[in-house]
Design brief:
Layout lengths: L5 E3 L5 H10 L15 H9 L4 E5 L2 E14 L5 E8 L5 E6 L2 E3 L7 H15 L7 E4 L6 E8 L7 E13 L5 H5 L9 E4 L5 E7 L1 H6 L27 H10 L15 H9 L2
Parallel strand pairs: 3-9
Antiparallel strand pairs: 1-2, 2-3, 3-6, 4-5, 4-11, 7-9, 8-9, 10-11
Length: 273
Amino acid sequence: MCAGDVVVGEPANVDYLEALIKDHNIDIRQFGVGQAKNLSALYHELGKHECSLLIRESQLIRLVDLVVLRVASANGKYLVEAEQTFTDGRSRKVQRLPAVMCRAKGKGIESALLEVARVLESELKTTPEVVSVDVLNSQEEVTVEMSVSQSYPGLETIYRRFIFNAAVSQAAAPEKASAIGQPDCRSFKTSLVDGTQIRWEWWSLEKCKKASMPIQPQTSGLEEFEGFKRLLGSSWDEASLTELLTRHRVDTKLFGVGGARTIEQLASEVNSG
């Protein structure tokens, strides 16, 4: 984030969120129309800590962290989320790699493993025995970009993507492999908890490249995220982190107040990477 950014707290209700969006000159009438999601969907994302909002120089911005899987088949094709169909019958083309929005459970390997499991279970309706994901040995790939949200028109969104390589296991039971269109790379469908239907397809490398999907190793970021360095070491505790934050003029008295996380929780996240 940039100096001067103000993080918006979780809205108390949908009406408060609607007022906040209107106050920042975003046309709420575009939500829930065509390919866009409705305001309730954004409210639930915020409630599940799958995204957050901040104000930058009077502009309202949505922040989203994503865990993305680059799933390859034995014949070199890649799994792509092609289309979503909502419960009201509306549909939209998405054309992206399998992904979930990260929830606020800390960072590091343990958190990544949890989010990868969510992609497999909630999005693909499969298991690690069918799709193996290389989390521990993958070279870290993080991309950051800012664009207007397809889901919420007019709302600028910063997307930070953590990308991991994955592959269809050759040892998977035939009936389980068939459920994700293998071995002949058929399209298939899954259903989300909210009733949204997802159509998945297996695309060639060339088709993925034409759609600008991150099939090749990625390293890119926004200017405001460049130059940041990780805290070295893995033995931070409440006292040492409090001293560091105080030295950088951070008001530590605000930690652990209301819905804010404690310094002890922050230390745990830093130590986990």
